[in-house]
Design brief:
This protein is an alpha+beta fold and 352 residues long. It has seven helices and 19 strands. The chain starts with 5 loop residues before the first helix and ends in an 8-residue tail after the last strand.
């Protein structure tokens, strides 16, 4: 019998692929609508190995990371995780990461192709500290479980894990780090496993959850109103603009970008806000096209998907504060087309 591999599975069953950096991710296996519906009815699993993974260690690792990021890390205990933001001196977003504290190190799950950038940033601000790091992206696979997950899923008792906690489990005879997520993706679980053992874990998970591709995942994300790297999260945005305030601790001391972020909050100087948009038809508008309110340019469209719930296109956009009002009418415009839309509350669907 030929050896099973995740790549062979994807190429055998996926109908289309999308490029995420150097990673070729399945767009869908059946149809995006069927996979989205599956997430509303039961568990679904996705190969998200396109995310970056880094390891930071050394006796000063915790204090250095605390001084470079927006969230409070000093109370983070072994077995706990949190969402944290690296910001530049101008208060712009370098990356949003999930940090897992282990006894001997910190694991950082980064945005696609951002592990090296984050490690370079950490190295830039490492002077006399005893801190070392390595890029583990190519050595690990990452699978994510979303949707309606019952107690005792596949005999793993995942609900014993509190949100933003993780622990090692044996799955299909393989050591796996299982993390319960909250905040920067649809709530669920991440499974981190070394590449050489990943196929067995994927086989186990896909027999207990329906595999989904990137399109259905992105549809879930937009419904929940979560910003994504490369769309809403770039080095052009600050955390205030893209609804990342839950991951900023305004009581902590100095960190890179802290003064700018605090000033934006204190003096209400945020110029734009991430909003939900509902279009009048099911035709997807062009990404990054301008949003217009009458004859005034009001913002930019950052994400757009077809909503199987609303049977229309929906999206996320960055809109100037003066135009942020529920029911506000916009027109998304490209050079040769236009798409009327209305600002609606986030999240789009509370049950997703």
């Amino acid at each position: 019998m030929p050896e099973f591999s995740i790549a062979k599975y994807h190429h055998q069953f996926a109908k289309e692929f999308v490029s995420i950096g150097d990673f070729s991710a399945p767009a869908f296996y059946q149809s995006p609508a069927e996979e989205f519906a599956a997430a509303l009815q039961g568990p679904v699993v996705m190969d998200r190995s396109f995310l970056g993974l880094a390891r930071v260690f050394g006796k000063d690792a915790g204090s250095l990371l605390h001084g470079l990021t927006t969230n409070e890390m000093r109370s983070l205990q072994t077995g706990q995780s949190l969402v944290n933001i690296f910001t530049t001196a101008k208060g712009r977003i370098l990356d949003v990461v999930e940090m897992l504290r282990r006894e001997e190190d910190y694991l950082l799950i980064t945005s696609p192709e951002r592990a090296a950038t984050v490690l370079q940033w950490i190295d830039k601000y490492t002077f006399v500290e005893e801190v070392r790091s390595e890029n583990l992206t190519s050595r690990y696979a990452l699978f994510s479980l979303f949707g309606k997950i019952q107690n005792g899923f596949a005999g793993l008792s995942l609900h014993h894990l509190l949100p933003q906690h993780f622990r090692e489990m044996q799955i299909a005879g393989v050591e796996v780090i299982v993390q319960r997520t909250k905040g920067i993706a649809p709530d669920g679980y991440n499974f981190l496993v070394k590449v050489e053992a990943a196929a067995a874990v994927w086989e186990f998970l896909r027999h207990h959850a329906k595999p989904i591709g990137f399109v259905a995942y992105d549809t879930l994300r937009v419904h929940v109103g979560i910003p994504a790297a490369g769309a809403e999260i770039t080095e052009e945005q600050n955390p205030h603009e893209v609804n990342l305030l839950p991951f900023i601790n305004f009581e902590k001391g100095c960190y890179i970008g802290q003064e700018v972020i605090a000033r934006l909050d204190t003096y209400d100087k945020v110029q734009r806000q991430l909003v939900g948009l509902e279009f009048e038809s099911d035709h997807l508008p062009a990404l990054n096209c301008s949003l217009w309110a009458g004859n005034e340019e009001a913002g930019v469209l950052t994400s757009a998907v077809f909503s199987p719930i609303r049977q229309k296109a929906i999206g996320l956009g960055l809109v100037r504060r003066k135009f942020v009002e529920l029911g506000q009418r916009f027109t998304a415009r490209s050079e040769d087309a236009s798409w009327p839309c209305t600002m609606v509350a986030l999240p789009f669907a509370h049950h997703v």
